[in-house]
Fold:
Amino acid sequence: MLTVAIIGLIANIVSLFLLHAGVNHSLNLKATYLHILGDTLSSVAVIIGALVVTLTQVTWVDPALTILVALLIAKETLPVIKQASLILMQTGPKVDYDQITKDLTALPGVNHIHHLHAWMLDEHTTAISLHINCTNQELSQIEPLYQQIETILKTKYHFNHVTIQAECHRGEAESLIANEIDHFEH
Ligand SMILES: [Zn+2]
Structure:
């Protein structure tokens, strides 16, 4: 048991070393890292358990170490589960949507914004779509405005994908966050 645990420990330490660089950049790598970390701590627990049980015959040390390792890993894993759940639920990123309204309606030519949707695609990618009410103009003239809005949403609020729909008066009475009733009145 001791020999197998030592071989396992060496393999896991190598894996941890290789994975460590990517842990802060990818949720998948972080989950994998935690899995290997669990294996590594288990190997350590088995080694300590084997030595203690052999030397002292105190057998409860082995299950006690197992529970300790399980609790440590659970503590580290909960934030990963939480973040993965938020992504799977397509939760909107935590940004100040009132401030977005203020920033965008402060742009010359933007009278109102409505029907905003925002969601997370993964831990790095967030998407936003919104309708803007602006003065009647050529499509080519709206493009610089699109560019300004996109720059604000990407640099200040860190959205990666921005979709904008320009309208003159359509949806003027709608609120920022769309709901079903707004949708049908649209
Ligand atoms: Zn609209």
